[in-house]
Amino acid sequence: MENLARDLSDNDDRVRLRALEQLTGLSDTGAIQLLGNALHDNSDVVRLKALELLGAIQGPAIIEPLKQALHDNNERIRLIAVELLGNLKDARALEPLNHALYDNSEKVRIKAAAQLSKLEIDLA
User: Fold this and answer.
1) Are 74 and 82 in contact (CB under 8 A)?
2) d(Cα 112, Cα 103) in Å, to the nearest integer?
3) What H or E segment, with its residue span, contains residue 98?
4) Which of 31, 40, 56, 102 has CB atoms 3.0–4.6 Å from 26's, for a disulfide?
C-alpha cells in the first residue's frame, strides 16, 4: 500500500491511474482510504476512476468518500456519487442525498430526488 500511496501522489496522471488500477477488487480500509484520497486529485480522469472503483465495492464503508465527491466541482462526478449513494440502499445515504437536492446543478438535483425516492421505497 505504501508504494501505491506514493504512486497516487505522482505528478503523472498515467502513474496515478495505474496505481488506482492496482486497487481494483480491493475493499479493505486501506484501499478505501486511498480511493477516497484520490477523489481530491486535480485530474478529472483520476477522480472518475477512483469513483468507479469505489462503486464496485458497494458497501457502507464508501459512504464517506462519496459524500466528499458531492462537493466536487465536476458535475459528472457529483452525478455518479449521487447514483452510487442511492444504489447502496443504506439509510446513511439519506443525509448526503438530501444535501444533493440543493446542488447548483439541476441534473444533480433531479438525480438526487430520483435516488431518494428509490432509496425510501427500498428501505420501507
Assistant:
1) no
2) 9
3) helix 94-100
4) 31
Return the residue matching grid coordinates 430520483. 114
Fold for the domain defined by 60-124: Leucine-rich Repeat Variant (1.25.10)
The CATH H-level superfamily of 1-57 is Leucine-rich Repeat Variant (1.25.10.10)
Q: Kindly state the average pLDDT of the residues 7-34.
A: 96
**Residue 89 — left, alpha, or beta (φ > 0 → left; ψ -120 to 50 → alpha)?**
left
**10 Å Cβ neighbour count for 38?**
25
Q: What are the DSSP calls for 16-72, one per residue?
A: HHHHHHTTTT--SHHHHHHHHHHTT-S-HHHHHHHHHHHHHH-SGGGHHHHHHHTT-
CB 41 within 8 A of CB 16: yes
Give pLDDT tens digits for 84-100: 999 998 999 999 999 99
